[in-house]
Amino acid sequence: MHVTPEEISQLFGETLRVRNVKLTTEEEYDRRMSVCQSCEYFQFGTTCRWCGCLMAVKAKLAAARCPAPQGAKW
Questions:
Q1: Which residues on adjacent β-strands are paired with residue 47?
Q2: Which of 37, 19, 13, 29 has its CA nearest to residue 61?
Q3: Which domain of life is it from (predicted)?
Q4: Fewest CB atoms within 10 Å of the CB: 5, 31, 70, 74?
Q5: Is 46:55 a contact under the CB 8 Å cutoff?
């Protein structure tokens, strides 16, 4: 799926705050996104090929893990 960062924020930003979802720190989020952006399975600048998730959302979730079958990268 190809969406802009602004669209992701608009779609999920408020939902995550309202539902009291435990989020990572900004530093951890930036680290996770850096790993994703260097991954060969990161597609369209937004989506993980393995799980189909929008990684700008998944990387914010404290309990989320990288789904790479060869071993989680974060």
A1: 43, 54
A2: 29
A3: Bacteria
A4: 70
A5: yes
Largest CA distance in the chain: 35
- Beta strands of 1-74 (E only): which ranges? 42-43, 47-48
Place of tokens 């408020």: 14
CA dist., res. 33 & res. 58, Å (int)? 10
Q: Cα torsion for 43, 13, 68, 32, to the nearest 10°?
A: 90
Contact present, 54 and 3 (Cβ < 8 Å): yes
Q: Quote the distance between the C-alpha of residue 17 and its chain's center.
A: 16
Q: Which pLDDT score, from 0 to 100, does residue 55 have?
A: 93
pLDDT for 69 equals 92
Reported pTM: 0.78
